[in-house]
């Protein structure tokens, strides 16, 4: 009977088995895979084989690389900037730092402190980027418009703060690797990595966009 299969406990169901319980770690995680070989050993062997084949680069020397001092902001793309401002304020408790607008010649300028969405809709002078913060997290929220397809995904750019020495090193590396440079000046530059993510590298204290 079908109901018997579902209602009568199966003897031995509580006994441990080698079958994974659906968890990688924590209660219910198998200590060994079938066949008696531990999961950690299998992973270690797989990584060792990939290292031997030259597939994975050694990462132990990361301490000699650039030292980042701060995350300046994360730039995300949205279709409705006013709606995004309200959500991040109400849900994440973020305060508005300021807004900027791109001019006809693509020059970025802060909008007045008495900015009003109703007045901006009437004049057509809408803000393009709003900066919101809560503690160390700063979001730059960029208005893309309702009809724009977000080709690069929601996360548009990560801005990092470095010292002047690291700034020069990274700028040189970007040029040597022939990566796409989107913007460059004396204290900041933006480049696109092979994964299509934009990175801004700026000398600490000279972030060009945030309207503090």
Distance between the termini: 72 Å
Q: What's the mean pLDDT score? A: 75
Order of helices and strands: HHEHEEHEEEHEEE
Largest sheet: 9 strands, mixed
Number of strands: 9
The rounded Rg comes to 26 Å
**Helical/strand content category:** alpha+beta
The proportion of residues forming helix, as a percent range, comes to 10-25%
Strand order of the largest sheet: 3-2-4-5-1-6-9-8-7
Unreliable spans: 1-41
**Total helix count?**
5
Q: Describe the global form.
A: globular
Strand content bin:
25-35%
Structural features, described:
- This protein has 212 residues and is of the alpha+beta class.
- It is 25% helix and 27% strand.
- The protein has helices at residues 2-7, 39-52, 81-92, 117-123, 164-176; strands spanning 70-78, 95-102, 108-110, 129-134, 137-143, 155-162, 180-184, 188-192, 198-203.
- Strands 3-2-4-5-1-6-9-8-7 form a 9-stranded mixed beta sheet, with helices on one face.
- β8 and β9 form a beta hairpin.
- The N and C termini lie far apart (72 Å).
- Mean pLDDT is 75; it is low at 1-41.
Characteristic terms for this protein:
212 residues; alpha+beta; 25% helix; nine-stranded mixed beta sheet
Secondary-structure map:
Blueprint: H1 2-7, H2 39-52, E1 70-78, H3 81-92, E2 95-102, E3 108-110, H4 117-123, E4 129-134, E5 137-143, E6 155-162, H5 164-176, E7 180-184, E8 188-192, E9 198-203
Parallel strand pairs: 1-5, 6-9
Antiparallel strand pairs: 1-6, 2-3, 2-4, 4-5, 7-8, 8-9
């Amino acid at each position: 009977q079908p109901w018997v299969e579902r209602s009568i406990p199966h003897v031995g169901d509580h006994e441990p088995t080698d079958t994974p319980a659906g968890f990688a770690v924590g209660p219910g995680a198998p200590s060994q895979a079938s066949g008696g070989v531990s999961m950690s050993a299998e992973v270690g062997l797989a990584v060792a084989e990939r290292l031997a084949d030259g597939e994975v680069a050694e990462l132990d020397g990361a301490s000699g690389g650039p030292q980042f001092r701060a995350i300046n902001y994360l730039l995300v793309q949205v279709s409705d900037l006013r709606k995004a401002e309200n959500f991040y304020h109400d849900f994440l408790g973020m305060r508005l730092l300021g807004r900027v607008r791109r001019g006809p010649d693509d020059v970025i300028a802060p909008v007045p402190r008495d900015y009003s969405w109703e007045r901006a809709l009437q004049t057509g002078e809408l803000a393009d980027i709003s900066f919101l913060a809560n503690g160390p997290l700063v979001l730059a929220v960029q208005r893309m418009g309702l009809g724009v397809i977000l080709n690069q995904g929601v996360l548009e750019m990560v801005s990092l703060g470095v010292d002047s020495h690291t700034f020069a090193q990274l700028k040189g590396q970007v040029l040597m690797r022939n990566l796409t440079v989107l913007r460059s000046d004396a204290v900041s530059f933006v480049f696109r990595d092979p994964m299509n993510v934009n990175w801004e590298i700026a000398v600490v204290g000279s972030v060009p966009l945030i309207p503090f």
